[in-house]
From TrEMBL, chain A:
Belongs to the binding-protein-dependent transport system permease family. LivHM subfamily. Keywords: Amino-acid transport, Cell membrane, Membrane, Transmembrane, Transmembrane helix, Transport. Pfam families: BPD_transp_2 (PF02653). InterPro entries: ABC_transp_permease, BCAA_transport_permease. It is a multi-pass membrane protein. This is ABC transporter permease. One of its GO terms (biological process) is amino acid transport. GO terms for cellular component: plasma membrane. It is found in: Cell membrane. The chain crosses the membrane at residues 12-32, 60-83, 95-115, 135-157, 185-209, 265-289.
Amino acid sequence: MELFTNQVLAGIATGAIYACMALAVVMIYQAIDHLNFAQGEMAMFSTFISWQLMQWGVPYWWSFLLTLAISFAGGILIERLLFKPLAKAPVLTNVAGFIALFAIVNSVAGLTWDFTIKQYPTPFGSSPFLGSQLISTHQVGMIGVTLLMLIGLYLFFQFTRIGLAMRAAAALPESARLVGVNTSWMIALGWGMASAIGAVAGILIAPVVFLEPNMMGGVLVYGFAAAVLGGLSSPLGAVMGGFLVGVFENLAGTYIPGVGNELKLPIALALIITVLVFKPAGLFGRAIVKRV
Amino acid sequence: MSVAAEDTVTEAPAVEAVPKRAMTLGTGTSLVILAALLVTPVFVKNFVVFQMTMVMIYGIAVLALNILTGGSGQFSLGQSAFYALGAYTSAVLMENANMNYALTLPIAGLVSFGAGYLFGKPALRLSGIYLALATFALAVAMPQLLKLHFLEHWTGGVQGLTVMKPDAPFGLPIGQDKWLYYFTLAISVAIYVGSVNLLRSRSGRALMSIRDNEIAASAMGVDVAQYKTLAFGVSAGITGIAGGLSAIVVAFVAPDSYTINLAIALFLGMVVGGVGWLPGSFVGAAFIIFVPNIAESISKGLSGAVFGVLLFIVIFLVPHGARQVAIVAQQMLGKLKN
């Protein structure tokens, strides 16, 4: 029983990361109807920026905030320069754009900071939490930071004018434009926020998986799985999906014989396909009705 | 992020339509290129011959993706998985069953066709971006599947498998590399001609009608689900043959040769060569083989950035890839003649 509780708690902790990635994916999907295949690489790059800031002597939390700001600006910049001109292009062109971004970011990170793995500090320490053997303080920190961020986002989207405008721009762009919402900038804002959320995910997972240019590959696939499970049209679903996928991953790794670390990615693949086949709208998403 | 009752009118096609005639080269041009390919190995070094062989192999793989995307309008970011499957099928049959290398290729094709067909079954319910997602996950997961413990006896696990490079048959007086070059050339020509004919056939027209407007296609009696799955299977099968060829020519297979980067490279080859333009596949393949070599010689790890930047340049400046360049060149030639 203790093993079970342990695995569930650990699953929730990694699930928090998947929730962040899924949320970032969904934010951009809501804004432009495309999946950002470079989301993981962008998060990795942000993490490297924060690492570099710390190398230069900036304290942890300042580097954290600075990285969020830089990532936010970077996300907006990428949207304005590269993806705004592609808004009306066919899906293929957009997928190609994301793939190109993926390759560039990965390669530039490797060139700048080379491909050796690096230690990344945690501000929470890694001692057992409250003397229990079940979960470490860093894992509690991961869950805590994620929850704080989610609450902040919820308040932002529900109670601010600009949050309302962003929701309007995502749901009914034409109508939003008619009532004076600048939908183009709302999309850019969505990109900035997605990029910053990804940065949080990267910074939180870096002490666990170590810092290197390919660190987010697996995490992104799990983020996609979480987003699909929760429903690509639902931010709340994405978050729930993240936690569910995290727990599922850990339990499958523990209890299904033959599934160790080596099968983690195939499990995510199986999960994505199962959900897409049986419930393409996800658990919380709405089915898309199209008029012909 | 609230609920919209109903959105979108008619969905725009995922891929821009390519007129059927624009998909191939004229007979004259094709024969000239074929003749050039036949005589080149006599004049160049063995390493260049090897590289040209690899261009043809990647060309076949890009061609397979082109049939899927340019023909039926579906995407795949998971071609590396089928390529790996073909390569491993060939390698395992050659090493463990002592099978003749040429005979392993049809089997590699069939196995990959089967896998692609089965993967396509659920995938046909998905459109555009979801299919890209599922295949992306497949490509990321594939190296781990190849490293599986209980398959290690056959696949060699992380170490991979080394296979024997075949000699020229009937005591022909040419080296291994040259023989494999002609062997690959023959298969490439066969696959190219077969693909051209496929796209010109009734099935090809059915695929293109699905690409341009799925609803109209089904209204005209095209079995959309069947054709989409078949397109996926055929594409996977041809990719598998390319993979099998690569196992024979490189004489080595290992899980980490078939990562997402290979899938990205093949995708890039298609975009650079021009989506839906079959000869462009080989231009794209040359691009993905030679550009990284040049980039890596400048700085290690640079090839990804060069790939990405060039991809953006293609997207923004020459969205039809090599096809566009070829058309412009043709027009300029026409002007010179007058």
